[in-house]
Amino acid sequence: MTNEYQLLVGAEAFVGALRVALEQCTQRLYIQFSTFEGDSSGRAFADLLIKRAQLGVDVRLMIDHYSSMVQDDIYPILLHRRAELSAEKQKTRQLIQSLQEAGVAVQYTAPLGPLGIYFPYRNHKKMIIIDDQLAFVGGINVSDHNYRWHDFMVKVCGPIVQDLAQDYLSTWEGQTFAYDKPSPDTDFLLNQCAGRYSLFEHILQLIDSAEKTLVIESPYLLGERIESAILAAAQRGVKITIILPFRSNKWLYRVWVRKLYRRLNHPNIRLYGYRGEHDMTHAKLMMVDDEVVTFGSFNMFELEGLTQKDLNIFTRNQSFIRQVKDFIAQDIAESVLIATPKSSFGRFSYTWLYYFVRWWTNFLLRNERWRLQYAE
């Protein structure tokens, strides 16, 4: 039995397909997001879960503790918006309570630690699994501001759904089942966590293997190793297309990415800035030689590769590759070529942060109790 994939572009298409699929859900409904907020999008999504729970379905919701600190893209350091952030958190707590009262089991992943010192170590996965037969995987989170961004989920049917269910249940039970061995003969998924970089390493290997074309779309592409791999591919003649946000939602990334723009200024690389949906693409995918595609939660951001739990699917399904090619063509049509900046500044802060986080992560991994909760 082969896997089947349907690309669902935008929150409306995703929620519409999910609503239809849930009508057939009779036993288990497993949901995981890194962000789940108590705004209008969250309430509408919660209603879908409550309806299933009232019909006797085993409904489980996992949310990362990211939502305990950040709401509506408001960080605690924005002191002038503290009242707004507090109100958003209160709405989310009330929504979660209503879910629990309706019979939905809710669990948070990766506590923030004292004073939030473990904030970088997030569980970044986004997936829904229905009766172990059908799944949705991609980059969309449940919140009004996430719904406004350009992004997608992929409806997945086939044997790989069982692997997704195993990954989900291992996290629910307080551990991580390691999918870290690529398969050359069939679709597969890879997950990673702090200290185990299998997903990121395989993405680098795929870039190194590219012979003709390489396409990447990502909200936060950055890092010495991935940038070097992309540049090396261009230098050996690979035609490369990269789509990034025209204006990222994170101001510090907007500083850091200027160096990437200058570094990847090569005749074989076309850098696009996405201008649709508030200038922000949150889509994450890579296609190599029109033969293999990977999609999931990983942002192609090397710093996050040190800290976050992520999951991607890898496939050679030609029907899905055609869908991805159409998606990329549409995104290019809604983008502009990024002009090479005359100067770059501030990248030293990323370099310093990267090496500090790498040291800090290696230090934390020596603690077995921490490793069991945040890595393994």
Write up what this structure looks like.
The protein is α+β, with helices and mostly antiparallel strands and 376 residues long. The chain folds into two domains: 4-165, 2-Layer Sandwich (Endonuclease, Chain A), CATH 3.30.870.10; 185-358, Endonuclease, Chain A (2-Layer Sandwich), CATH 3.30.870. The protein is 40% helix and 21% strand. The strands form two sheets. The chain has an eight-stranded mixed sheet with strand order 8-14-13-12-9-10-11-15, with helices on both faces. Helix 7 packs parallel to helix 8. The protein starts with a strand and ends with a helix. The mean pLDDT is 95.
Q: How is this structure best summarized?
A:
40% of the residues lie in helices and 21% in strands.
Examine the coordinates and then state which fold CATH places here, giving the name of the CATH topology of the largest domain.
Endonuclease, Chain A
The overall average pLDDT, rounded, is 95
What is the strand content? 15-25%
Q: Helix-strand pattern, N to C?
A: EHEHEHHEEEHEHEHEHEHEEEHEHEHH
> How many domains?
2
User: Fraction of residues in helices?
Assistant: 40-55%
Outline type: globular
CATH class of the largest domain: Alpha Beta
Count the beta strands: 15
Rg, Cα atoms, Å? 20 Å
Given helix and strand content, the structural type is alpha+beta
CATH architecture of the largest domain: 2-Layer Sandwich
Helical segment count: 13
The stretches of 5 or more residues where confidence is low (pLDDT under 50) are none
Numbering strands along the chain, what is their spatial order in the largest sheet? 8-14-13-12-9-10-11-15
